[in-house]
Amino acid sequence: ALDEFARIRGDEETDLSGTARAAMAIQARADEADRFSRDIDNAEQAKLPRLSAARFAALDKKLNLVYRKIMDAAPPGAPGLVSQYATVTKDNVRHAQRAWLAYRDALVGFGVLRYPAIPASAWKAMLTERRIVQLSELLQ
Q1: Residue 50 is part of which domain span?
Q2: pTM for this structure?
Q3: How many domains, in total, are found in the chain?
Q4: 59 closest CA partner among 108, 132, 109
């Protein structure tokens, strides 16, 4: 699930205009793998944020608002794009979001089995907070 999300994030949800597009796509993939490694290292050392179910619920609402804002965007002269100055389409974001949900659920499933002291809500909140940042960057 991580590989699929990282691939889609790099290939579809990264602005690929300009001459640095290949480097940006590769970097986006590497960033996801690095975050995963850090998350596992932090869990091993019991340093993962202890975020509550209420915090996750609030973050999930915020994520849905940001996602909806992207889907409702109507940049002039750029139908279907997130921004008139980027190559990312709404379909790209939708595809990446579905891959991210599968990744989130897989990591949460692994996390609660491997690290039972860390509740699912902590994993979900941490990953959702990160995804909000990623999606918000598309609106800039």
Answers
A1: 2-138
A2: 0.88
A3: 1
A4: 132
